[in-house]
Hints:
The complex is a heterodimer.
Chain A: E1 11-17, H1 20-28, E2 36-42, E3 49-53, E4 56-60, H2 62-65, E5 68-70
Antiparallel strand pairs in A: 1-2, 1-5, 2-3, 3-4
Chain B: E1 5-11, H1 17-25, E2 29-33, E3 40-47, E4 53-58, H2 73-80, E5 90-96, H3 100-111, E6 117-122, H4 124-129, E7 132-134, H5 136-143, E8 147-149, H6 158-166, H7 185-195, H8 200-209, H9 218-230, H10 235-257, E9 258-260, H11 269-277, H12 282-323, H13 328-345, H14 348-364, H15 366-380, H16 388-393, H17 398-404, H18 411-420, H19 429-440, E10 445-446, E11 450-451, H20 452-478, E12 488-491, H21 499-533, H22 539-548, H23 550-553, H24 558-572, H25 574-586, H26 593-601, H27 608-619, H28 629-635, H29 648-660, H30 665-675, H31 679-703
Parallel strand pairs in B: 1-4, 1-5, 5-6, 6-8
Antiparallel strand pairs in B: 2-3, 3-4, 7-9, 10-11
Helix pairs in contact in B: 3-10, 5-10, 7-8, 7-9, 12-13, 12-14, 12-20, 13-21, 13-27, 14-21, 17-30, 18-20, 19-20, 19-28, 19-29, 21-27, 22-24, 25-26, 26-27, 27-28, 29-31, 30-31
Keywords (chain A): Iron
InterPro entries (chain A): Fe-transptr_FeoA-like, FeoA, FeoA_core_dom, Transcriptional_repressor_C
Domain Ferrous iron transporter FeoA-like (chain A): 1-70
Amino acid sequence: MKLSQLAIGQQGIIKEFTDLEMSVKLMEMGCLPGEAVKVERIAPLGDPIAVTVSGYQLSLRKREASTIELI
Amino acid sequence: MKSTLRVALVGNPNTGKSTIFNALTGLNQKVGNFPGVTVDKKSGLCKLPDGKQVEIIDLPGTYSLYPKSADETIVFEVLSNPDNSSHPDLVVIVADATNLKRNLLLYTQIADLKLPVIIALNMMDQAEKGNIEIDINALATRLNVPVVALAARKSIGLDELKSAISYSTNIPLQHATIDVESIAPELIKAVSKKLKIDNPYVALQIVHQHENLKYISKEDSLWIEEQEKIYDFHPQKAQATETIARYNFINEVLLDTVVYTSVALEENISNKIDHYLTHKVWGFVIFFLILFAIFQSIFAWSEYPMMLIETVFVWLAELGHTYLPAGVFTDLLIDGVLAGLSGVMVFIPQIALLFAFISVLEDTGYMARVTFMMDKLMRKVGLSGKSVVPLIGGLACAVPSIMSARTIENWKDRIITIMVTPLVSCSARLPIYTLLISLVVPSKLVLGFINLQGLVLMLMYLLSIVMAILVAWVMKIIIRSNLKSYFIMELPVYRMPRWNNVALTMFGSIKTFVTEAGKVIVAVSIVLWVLASYGPGDRIEKIDQKYSSSEITSQYTEEEINILKSSEKLENSYAGIVGKFIEPSIEPLGFDWKIGISLITSFAAREVFVGTMATLYSVDGDDSEMEPVRNKMAQARNAKTGALVFTTATAFSLMVFYAFAMQCMSTMAVVYRETKQWRWPIIQFFYMLVLAYGASFIVYNLLK
């Protein structure tokens, strides 16, 4: 399951990243393996999405969210 | 020899770093540049409880020492180079208590640079509300650094922070965080030896960032490149290893010091607000309404202060004519300088309001939502959601907006944003729009509550934004790039705007406008007055003679003669000759030679237009009549045809020309600085000129 596949309100736990370059940037922003993520909302035009992770809200594009594998 | 302690504020964006900076320095702050780069350096003095003064420097907000944008590079540059003129003796790391884990990442990186540090744990009130219990003492003991709890917006903890600064030592006492050397042992050793660096983490960061660091020479940079190959160093893998190690350390620290009594995933107020503000339909409706309200209030609220300023200048001119001895100098002062200044200073209220509104939008966190909503749309036309901030900022001024495009990580997105931002109507066009609109659009209410003039103004702004988007789309097709674009951005929680911050922005914008624009305008007004008052050879004297002959004095009244005389003088002056020379090329746009003069003078800066109009119509007209430039322009007639100069067609054609033409030296200079290539400002200048000419031509011929 990828983060980009979750619907609004669903949550999961980060397992790993499929893109090294993106993983470094995501980890700096608090997206870490073992951390819970919840999809809060999707932008009016369908992309990007807003998620709650490690206590704050982060927005990222679906393409970026698709590099995050969930448990 | 340094007499005062230098303290750097470092922290993630949205942690209240600038609130703390403002609280510590008050009005004792100034904006400069870091040496060699164009990043704004905010610094100020702060008085400590023991009477000592320290210098506080506000470094750009960043999530990590690994820079993601041009602005963030400066943080490591300043912190790692003891010879940098901004190198601090002490670093205050501002951390958001509600999101400690992510905030401590930057702490562990800076701690490993072995600089003396203090942690300022801000937003403690929010953390308590969110049921996050932080054991400050345990945290301080665990890391062996002073930790100060703050709620800076409520002015809690500032005195404690000040005393922590005054008790600080110049020895870094913090415990080690991770084993840096194990990431690339041989490479770190080699680089440390070659560059004589005794800190392994500084050496490792230099390996990562050597290309962008000013204090690393070309040769050293190439040498590091070779070493990376020799030791098979993979930057991204190394950074990933390091980041994971740092989070492991942080998790251990947090385990002993922080208790989360409830899960922080519950619906908070920000979430509820976002439900409406980023709603599929309402989100855009609200965004549009907010922009609409802003432009309506700019017109409505500035009416009285503008009238007041106008009255003051008319009164000053009358006073001057009454009490100053008549002569060339008085004419220069009143018809040249004063007329030019008054034409522009009138717009201070509108500019101040626009800057205030934009700063409120940013301060509340709404701008980040606009970015979020617009990203997909923006990406379609070759921009990024983050381009929205420079584009909306472009409503105030393109210069700082183009600089703010640095937050866009992708080169192509950034170049396109820079190229189209000057198309967005800035505050310097506002005086031109309002002047021309008030000439040809009646001030009446549509549907009972909408001011027609305000509506037309808003349409001008929309037109400029639509054009910026169209041009961006064309550029997306032309410019090639294979760099990946990405969009990972924090959505800060909604907050009330800090009104003192809004006021500071407002007064700052007035100050810059009056001093910067004022200088140019006074200079241009003087030159223009001279050019408009004198002509080649004895042409001007001949006109004087012509109108004093009895043949003419018997035919016309004195008043009529004055008007005829001065307009003929203007036509034969140097300015008139230049204006007439370019008249054929601008006639298809509906402009006469006087407008031509204004176009030439305002190629350096648009705000000069109104000043030029004021000067030209003061020279050309009856001296005894004191009235605002608007009335003089409304009565202006073409000498040849006798028709009114400012018809609806001409006024709109002129507005469109000013909307699209690149008439701002400062913007061109900043585009060069930001892109480091002359081709970008040059391309920008010509594409905008072509666009302006074409659009004006169409508008004039449609409305004629």
